[in-house]
Every structure is written in C-alpha cells, then in structure tokens.
Design brief:
The complex is a heterodimer.
Chain A (H helix, E strand, L loop, with lengths): L8 E4 L5 E6 L12 E5 L6 E4 L13 E6 L2 E6 L8 E9 L7 E4 L3 E5 L1
Parallel strand pairs in A: 1-9
Antiparallel strand pairs in A: 2-6, 3-4, 3-7, 5-6, 7-8, 7-9
Chain B lengths: L2 E5 L3 E2 L5 E8 L9 E7 L6 E7 L4 E3 L7 E6 L4 E6 L8 E8 L9 E4 L3 E5 L2
Parallel strand pairs in B: 2-11
Antiparallel strand pairs in B: 1-3, 3-8, 4-5, 4-9, 5-6, 7-8, 9-10, 9-11
The chains are: A mainly beta, B mainly beta.
C-alpha cells in the first residue's frame, strides 16, 4: 500500500520557523489530490489545521500555512510557540489500486519546541 | 455545532467481532453529500483510515481491511456503526469517528472528530 512519508521529528526554538514535509508519489499527491494537515496533542483527537493543501479553517492562526508541489506537500509554522508542541499528520488520497481508491495518512511528525 | 462521540467495548477477545457506534449531532446523514468516516490509531502510532459512509449509503473501505469491515448508518438516530471481524492484538487502537468537511468528496479533510474510544484486544 502507498505511503506518505513524514520526518519522525522536527524541533525549533520559540519564535522560529519550522517546516514539516509530506512526501508522496504519482498515485496520490502527484495525481493532484489535496493534502490536509492535522495537529494532535497526545491523548486528544486530531484537529484540522490545513485543508485543500493551503486553506486554514476559521480559528487556526495564520502562523500555520500549507503548500504543495509535485509529489510533496509542506506545513510551515512560523513564530513557534510552546503550545505548538504536538504530533502533526498529513492526509491525502490514493488511486494506486485499480479496484478501490483510499484515504492515506502520513506516519506523523513530532514537533518539539526547545 | 457539530459533535461526535464514539461508544463501544473497551476490551475484546481475539477472534471476536467489534461493534462501535458513532453518535453525532449538528448535522444529518439525510443531507446530500454528508459523510462520516472512521479512523484508528494504535498506541504511539500513526492514524489509519478505515471507512467512510455517505448520506446515500455509498460506502468506502480501506483496501487492507475491507474484508473485515462493515460500516452502516442509522439515520433516524444520528448514528454510524462500524463492525470489524476477527480481531487480533494488532487491532488494539483508539478508534475515532469524524465528519467529512466537503460534501461528496471522499478525498476531503475531516473537520470534526469524536474524542475517540480505546479498544484493547486481549484474552
């Protein structure tokens, strides 16, 4: 089954900018499917951060932004804050199996605020 | 305001069948385009998409789990039910249900999530 690859961990100091990558393939991100991003504090449900690759739901600070190019996508967080420390997941869609398409999540990235 | 809540057993024996119920409010599965999905997360691991059901009873499943999953809806009760057969220890996970943000689009994000329910598979 296809995968979306994320770095296991990233870190940054308060106020800094960090990016989290999500690398897919021609059967998912490269096929033009949107990428969505979630933030999950351990022990809680995921929270939607970015949808449609670049859009923020209302209430999500503009410190969070998303981009997509080719077979990859990225989540950028500027002005890092202690409260941003969490796990981050990307989501896309895959059409590599002829019989059925499916939703795909990345392996997750743990963000540590130093 | 949209809310979802999962319910079901917390402990299941290997080979048994798991039935989870998602009870929601703030939207209706009788409205065109609406969808509710199930996603699970083993302890300390990543999210895994399981299934999705639409207002019109169209259903989608994870290819790797398709033979073991059944998703149904009880529109009058605002509920979605997920059944998983032949459970094993690897199925120990927190199971979430979630609301599909964009009507009709199976590739849409999920904008509202339940709190999740931890299911442990052990004898």
């Amino acid at each position: 089954q296809s995968v979306l690859t994320q770095p296991p961990s990233v870190s940054g100091a308060p106020g800094q900018r960090v990016t989290i990558s999500c690398t897919g393939s021609s059967s998912n991100i490269g096929s033009g499917y949107d990428v969505h991003w979630y933030q999950q504090v351990p022990g809680t449900a995921p929270k939607l951060l970015i949808y449609g690759s670049t859009n923020r739901p209302s209430g999500v600070p503009d410190r969070f932004s998303g981009s997509k190019s080719g077979t990859s996508a990225s989540l950028a967080i500027t002005g890092l804050q202690a409260e941003d420390e969490a796990d981050y997941y990307c989501q896309s869609y895959d059409n590599s199996l002829s019989a059925s398409d499916f939703v795909l999540f990345g392996g997750g990235t743990k963000l540590t605020v130093l | 305001q949209i809310t979802l809540k999962e319910s079901g057993p917390t402990l299941v024996k290997p080979t048994q069948t798991l039935t989870l119920t998602c009870t929601f409010s703030g939207f209706s599965l009788s409205t065109g385009g609406v969808g509710v999905g199930w996603i699970r997360q083993p302890p300390g691991k990543a999210l895994e998409w399981l299934a999705l059901i639409y207002w019109n009873d169209d259903k989608r499943y994870s290819p790797s789990l398709k033979t073991r999953l059944t998703i149904t809806k009880v529109t009058s009760k605002n509920q979605v039910v997920l059944t998983m057969t032949n459970l094993g220890p690897v199925d120990t996970s927190t199971y979430f249900c979630a609301h599909l943000r964009h009507p009709f689009d199976v590739w849409s994000a999920y904008d509202y999530w339940g709190q999740g329910t931890l299911v442990t598979v052990s004898s």
